[in-house]
Design a protein that fits this description.
Radius of gyration: 17 Å
Strand order of the largest sheet: 1-2
Helix content: 40-55%
Distance between the termini: 61 Å
Mean pLDDT: 82
Oligomer: single chain
Shape: globular
Largest sheet: 2 strands, antiparallel
Structural class: mainly alpha
Strand content: under 5%
Length: 100
């Protein structure tokens, strides 16, 4: 049983929550890097040990949320949605460009 305020996943949850709550883009970038490192380290630990399916799912969701913050707030490119099949590429502003 967890006590109120106790983290479910203490190995990475604090860094993740700090990134989610940050409003300053300058600080957000650094906090996202710290959260990503904590998530990566925890994934490595889980791969060598426990059967943590629930935590794996939480880690995956957290990593995806951090990626969305990078794209939507910090202006990182969205590589997954930058190419439409058979219709050329989009530049960073979403305009289509013709491939030569």
């Amino acid at each position: 049983m967890r006590l109120e305020g106790e983290k479910r996943f203490p190995e990475w949850q604090s860094e993740y929550e700090a990134a989610l709550l940050e409003t300053d883009p300058q600080k957000l970038s650094e906090l996202i890097h710290k959260a990503e490192a904590a998530i990566f380290n925890r994934l490595q630990a889980l791969n060598t040990g426990s059967d943590g399916h629930i935590e794996h799912a939480a880690l995956s969701d957290a990593a995806e949320t951090l990626r969305r913050l990078q794209i939507e707030i910090l202006g990182y490119p969205d590589w997954e949605n930058s190419v439409e099949r058979g219709s050329g590429c989009k530049d960073l502003r979403g305009r289509r460009s013709v491939q030569a």
